[in-house]
Amino acid sequence: MKELKEILISLLNLLGWAWWVEIATDNPRCTYYFGPFLSKNEAETAKNGYIEDLEQESAQGISFAIKRCKPSALTVYEEPGEMGSRGKSPAYSG
């Protein structure tokens, strides 16, 4: 059963229909992608652990989104002065 789930997740990810947790931080200025997940619920459940890990690494200005996407990189570093347009809602305050 686990193998079937992994195959389904891989297929959904290939099509860009898998769910991902996107977490953006202001310091360091990065966007992280965690996934893929089969359902939005699974991603929602997993996000707290990722946020806690980033907080332990002293990341600041953490915001997140749960969305269907197909990230080309799991970590995106933004150059200083670069004005990326990030969706900041819903913001995490913890």
Walk me through this protein's architecture:
With 94 residues, the chain is of the alpha+beta class. The chain is 33% helix and 26% strand. It contains two helices and four strands, in the order αββαββ. It has helices at residues 2-15, 40-56, and strands at residues 19-25, 30-37, 63-68, 75-77. 17% of the residues are buried. The model is unreliable at 87-94 (pLDDT under 50). This is DUF1816 domain-containing protein. InterPro entries: DUF1816.
Helix-strand pattern: HEEHEE
Largest sheet: 4 strands, antiparallel
Output the number of helix runs.
2
Count of DSSP strands: 4
Contiguous low-pLDDT stretches (5 residues minimum) are 87-94
Radius of gyration: 14 Å
- From the spread of the alpha carbons, the general shape counts as globular
Can you list the strand order of the major beta sheet? 3-1-2-4
What share of the residues does DSSP label as strand, in percent? 25-35%
First-to-last CA distance: 36 Å
InterPro entries: DUF1816
Organism: Laspinema olomoucense D3b
Protein name: DUF1816 domain-containing protein
Tell me briefly what this model is:
The chain has 94 residues and is of the alpha+beta class. 33% of the residues lie in helices and 26% in strands. The protein has a 4-stranded antiparallel β-sheet with strand order 3-1-2-4.
Keywords summarizing the entry:
single chain, 94 residues, alpha+beta, 4-stranded antiparallel β-sheet, 26% strand, globular, disordered C terminus, DUF1816 domain-containing protein, DUF1816
